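Hi L., both proteins are below.
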Amino acid sequence: MRDASLWRALLGVDKTVIEQVEFDEDEQLLVAQVRPRSRARSRCGVCGRSCPGYDGGEGRRRWRALDLGTVQVVLEADAPSVSCRQHGVVVAAVPWARHGAGHTYAFDEQVAWLATQASKTTVTQLMRIAWRTVGSIITRVWADTERQFDRFAGLKRIGIDEISYKRGHRYLTIVVDHDSGRLVWAAPGRDKATLHAFFDALGEQRCAAVTHVSADGADWIAKVVTQRCPQAVRCADPFHVVSWATDALDEVRRDAWNQARGAVTRRRAGRASGHAKDLKGARYALWKNPGNLTEKQQAKLAWVARTDPRLYRGYLLKEGLRLVFQLPHQQAAEALDRWVAWARRCRIEAFVTLQRRIVKHRDSILAAIEHGLSNGRIESVNTKVRLITRIAFGFRSPESLIALAMLSLGGHRPVLPGRN
């Protein structure tokens, strides 16, 4: 192997002429002087078209390459400008790096792979770069990956949800493919305009191909899905529906607690004692499924049944709604109607309000039971996105977080340089 071929392999570059390699002892830096091959010269840095030269640019510049052992490596070359008919005067493209980047393709690929596999400290210390630089790199890598693959191909059954990524009510709307479990789209915001942006990207033809959409029952999701995918079956996530009943039960429990300690009749309630003190530990006994209760919690639940019929009735209503989702579709429809009738006359305001919400979402609840569709996959992706959010803390924009989430969960993980 000739020296030039060896250096191209070591530096991870292609279509490049190695002019000279020297070691700068003062900076402890290996500097490779390079230039593009003749066929790769004078091309627009944005679109890659061959263009007439404009000027010599701002002189020579450097690109960070992968380290060789413990020694940092940079490529150094001229950076002339060309005149593109579409993009105007831009810096000419180079075959070893993306337009506007200060790192080589191989460097970017290794950073992107590490960001999806390792901790923040590992990436920054191993690659000797700032964490914000990692954000810029993975944004570039995801932009290239997105152009290579059609992430909306074969999309039939989707789940939609929102997740908080920052304090101050900052949310991402995410879309997951039920069949593959891939994260297919994410964007900042949780409103109708944000979701419309997803369906705009999907296109009318592919919107018409969507057959099922699962969500948590939010009105803004339902309205947009009805408008953009009227043929799709909307499914209300069973977990969220049961959580509505759990929230209603918790409201009843708090009312009982406040009544018992005198917080309703007196301006300032004293320390809990007697019935209020005994009621204090009932929270988890009321929340948990009967099969998961400990002996102590079973005893607490039996005590609630004897001493507070109203609270226990709320517990039975919560459990009755949960059991609806364990029945076949036809039986579930009848059971749900009976549950609504029971809740309507139960004289517990929280559950009377809940039954109105259940009636509103009745069709989507039964559709979820019939088609066996839930937001389980979406919640799994949400858990992973939350972990990625903790890792990505410090990125300047949500776009970098989204890029890292898409690279990690979108089905097209980056690979290390030199691997297939």
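That was the first. Here is the second:
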Amino acid sequence: MLYRFDDCELDLRQHEFRRGGEVVPLEPQVFDLLALFVTRAGDLVDRDSMIEEIWGGRIVSEAAISSRINAVRRAIGDDGRAQHLLKTVPRRGFRFVGEVSEAADAPRAQQGEETQKIRMTRSRDGARIAFTTTGSGPPLMRAGHFLTNLELDWKSPIWRPLLSRLGERFSVTRYDQRSTGLSDPAPKSLALDRLAEDLEAVADAAGLDRFPIFATSQGVPVAVAFAARHPERVSGLVLYGGYAQGRSVRGTEEETRNAEAITTILRQGWGRSGSAFATAFVALYMPDATHEQLQHVSEMQLASATPENAVALRLAIDSFDVTELMGSVRAPTLILHAREDAVHPAAQSGVLAAGIPGAQLHVMESRNHIPLPQDPCWSELIEAAVGFLDA
């Protein structure tokens, strides 16, 4: 996960590039292109491979490719004349010729990476819920949501950077919701009230009396339901990419078609890496994902839920409706949404903001439903969330 060459370090875990010990910000495609060259050091990387890995096989102009190559060279202190690290093979492609050493973990992991201890509790109806607490500082609850596994999240190129950043400021308690991850795979119910009771059970088991909640996607209505029913326990809400009404409740013809399409994708593509339906799933949830992130999602699917559970959960969360509960929320609330989110429309965050007293709405310029570390909006999300919770 950590590659060293010359005076540079490429940290895939933290999605950071460092030169001379200093972090050098890179555009996502530039970072991914550098990672492609470095991880295949000594091999010829041709134009077709670059287009497939970085641009997903889309048509790309020579000017765009040249621009990214030049940006890679500037970042590593090379240029087209010297080519002491990245050599051009005329009419063939490029070869990274620097001496690369690979480490199993990033520097902070080598200094003693934090471990997590997974515990179990039972919800009110007896469902087993797996949870853990990591990081340091005041408590923060991360509401459960679709596609999690406590063990794999801790190693995830998508979720671990988020957990690490939040853990620098908070003691983060998180859990696998019922029917997913390490929690009960066959619960009696997937109703909204039961999922809110799961959050309550985890808070009780972790010894949390009053705490803020960080919720994403379908975890948002769960957090809203809990906050409305237990105002004395919730000190703040940060809600990202969520909704007030599920697709089946909104009732429009377009939403009905979208719900049916997603259900079909889950039934046909869940856990089938490389299939057209699996590709459609990723394109919907995180269109700007890297190859590493795509592989992780494929691994995560079956580790998180069976195809049957994934479909059942999707149908359940499409029926959630918290419009009658929003007015009872008393906690300060920050609502964030990606403007081009194709899973839950940004308009639903507008419904939440209008219904929760005093809520703040922050719409970001992104199309990824799942927040990706290389997306410029990722830092915007973290800074907004931590700043709000610290206020």
